[in-house]
Write a structure and sequence with these properties.
Length: 115
């Protein structure tokens, strides 16, 4: 085989190797860009979870078993009183609305407009 044939073979092999490396680099770059997008979404979710954790810490209550019977009973009664007050307020508002619908002053009403 002549020397120039070996040169052509090795040149073609070198070009094939460069092409394979370029395709591999392109695929790796696309994968890394996708990974960066996913990491951004993950960071946003982690931030949201951190804020939710802070809110949960702020809203944490003491365990009833550690508070004692008297304190637990007092808190429960306060919740019940507040619920009863809200229920009574709604009931009074319904009654007032019903009374306003039933109470019509016939003398102040114009029965036949335009006459």
């Amino acid at each position: 085989m002549p020397w120039w044939a070996w040169l052509i073979i090795w040149g073609a092999l070198g070009l094939a190797m460069v092409a394979v490396l370029a395709v591999a680099a392109w695929l790796l770059l696309r994968t890394l860009l996708g990974l960066l997008g996913d990491l951004g979404a993950l960071a946003a979710k982690a931030e949201l979870l951190d804020r939710a954790g802070e809110v949960m810490d702020e809203q944490a209550t003491e365990l009833a078993i550690l508070l004692g019977t008297a304190e637990t009973r007092r808190r429960r009664e306060a919740v019940r009183r507040a619920a009863l007050q809200r229920r009574d307020a709604r009931r009074r508002a319904r009654l007032d609305r019903g009374r306003a619908l039933l109470r019509v002053d016939a003398a102040s009403r114009e029965w036949f407009p335009g006459n």
